[in-house]
Structures are given as structure tokens and as C-alpha cells.
Amino acid sequence: MRLIAITQDSKGRIVVDGYTLTFKQARFCEEYVSNGNVINEAVIKAGYSKSSPSVVNSMGLENLNKPACKAYIAELQQRFKQTADHRVATIEERRNLLTQWIYSDDVRYNDKLKALDILNKMDAAYEQRIKMDTTINNPVQSLTTEELRSLIENEPD
Questions:
Q1: Helix or strand holding residue 8 (H, E)
Q2: Percent of the chain having pLDDT more than 70?
Q3: Is the pLDDT of residue 62 over 90?
Q4: How far apart are CA 117 and CA 97, in angstroms?
């Protein structure tokens, strides 16, 4: 496999093996990789004219046939694969994994209970009942307005 030089020029444009991609070409490549290789969507999101579906499709195919675009897409796919390998599992993925453990015959009983406990915590299945005494002992609560005024007036400075 041949090494490809990918850099940025002074204006921030992507340079692939000496060929400078336009902003739209670079954006097309990035959108193409991020959306799962859907050409038309990548062309539109990159900012190309969307006058007709055939024009959009031909613009995408033209970009895909350019060696610099191919090289940049290959590099982006490699980076995307590396990041996907080291990403954090989503909540749904964690739920599915814990559920698999609960129903698996290869997992010890204690581990199944722990997985069930974690799932219950994730779903807030444990209802916490907390009784709070909100009564405040207020010594002046039973005093009348006149008694409160006399206390205020007689208070030493």
C-alpha cells in the first residue's frame, strides 16, 4: 500500500499528494464517509447545486473518480474505523449486552444478578422512599402581630 501525503495549505484547504481539494470536494469526502457512503446526500451537504438528481449523482461520481478524493476518502475511512474501535458503548448497546448476559447459559448466576441490578439502576427501577420531616421548630410562630412588634421594639441594640 502506497503512503499518501495529506496536509493543509496556508488557507486551510486539504492537499492530497500535491493536489489541492476544494472546500466542497473535501466536505463531500467527509460527508460521504460519515453518512455511510451515500453519494447524493454527501453532494448536497457539501454545498453543490442540487438542480436535479442526475446532476447531483454525476457530481458525486465525478468526485469519487478523482484520485485525490479517493485517497482522502480512504484516509478518512481508516481514521473512522480506528475511532469506531475505541469508542464508548452507547446506552442501548450497554443495555443489550447486559440483557444478553442475563439470558446466557455461559454466565455465572452471581454475574447475572449483577447485570440485572445494573439494568434496574439504569432504568431507575428501584424506587427510593425517603421520609423527610419538614417541621421547623419556630418559637415565634404562635405569637400575634402585636407581640412580635413589642419584641422588635424592646430589642436591645
A1: strand 6-8
A2: 91
A3: yes
A4: 13
